[in-house]
């Protein structure tokens, strides 16, 4: 069991024939992902070889879905084309769309997120994210597949790099699913969405939630945890040393007064019983203690 992505997922790649798309399609295939096609209007009807596996290229997402039954699309297209690519996937009723592209204009994200919400069919992960991996089953995005194997920890993170580090730190336990949701001001899948899915997943025993300064997503997640999550949760908030009032790294990471600070987020999480580490390693150790307690 896993959330959002399984061994049965049929994945297409929008932008598969570009340099990034080609590189990461090769990696996704190597990790066992069932990639059934790519999309490039200029190369429709062709195929592309990936270490001996031939993957067909379709002119549109609708054609790819019709021919393959694809239910996941991973998007590797430049920022100026991302909105149209996502809208095409939404119109084709693809259930899961993973938007890897960074630098997408916020108003474009707002437009395609609104379209996805209105569709009632499509879940978006990203943009500006590393994607989602269910170790040993499928990998939709750029998360290295060899960091950690399958296990019973769920991971949701705003930060791509910290997704990788936390998976590595807890590789002795492994993960049901790890999802990088991205750090832009507007994103599709949120901490709360992932927390709810992990709560409902019978093969996830505990959850790691990684946030960062800026906005109030972590405070809202804390309120959700209090009311809805019975599984143990540990947290980490990146940015304890960040100066107030400056944008740090991700576009969403801006602090205004006391709102959005790492300390305020830590306080909100700890108030609902979430243990918060000061460093990624300390956070991993908190989760290790929980997992060891669950296996006794």
What's the arrangement of secondary structure elements?
Layout: E1 11-14, H1 19-30, E2 35-39, E3 47-50, E4 53-58, H2 61-68, E5 72-75, H3 79-91, E6 96-99, H4 106-119, E7 123-125, E8 131-134, E9 138-141, E10 150-157, H5 160-169, E11 175-180, H6 191-200, E12 206-212, H7 217-228, E13 233-238, H8 262-270, E14 275-277, H9 280-294
Parallel strand pairs: 1-2, 1-5, 2-4, 5-6, 6-7, 10-11, 10-12, 12-13, 13-14
Antiparallel strand pairs: 3-4, 8-9, 8-11
Task: Note down, in words, how this protein is organized.
It comes from Kribbella pittospori. Pfam families: CoA_binding, Ligase_CoA. Belongs to the succinate/malate CoA ligase alpha subunit family. The protein is globular. Strand 8 and strand 9 (138-141) form a beta hairpin. Helices cover 35% and strands 23% of the residues. It has 9 helices and 14 strands. The two termini are 23 Å apart. The strands form 2 sheets. Strands 3-4-2-1-5-6-7 form a 7-stranded mixed beta sheet, with helices on both faces. A 7-stranded mixed beta sheet has the order 9-8-11-10-12-13-14, with helices on both faces. The protein has helices spanning 19-30, 61-68, 79-91, 106-119, 160-169, 191-200, 217-228, 262-270, 280-294, and strands at residues 11-14, 35-39, 47-50, 53-58, 72-75, 96-99, 123-125, 131-134, 138-141, 150-157, 175-180, 206-212, 233-238, 275-277. The mean pLDDT is 93. The chain has 296 residues and is α/β, with parallel strands linked by helices. It has 2 domains: 11-125, Rossmann fold; 147-294, Succinyl-CoA synthetase domains (Rossmann fold, 3-Layer(aba) Sandwich), CATH 3.40.50.
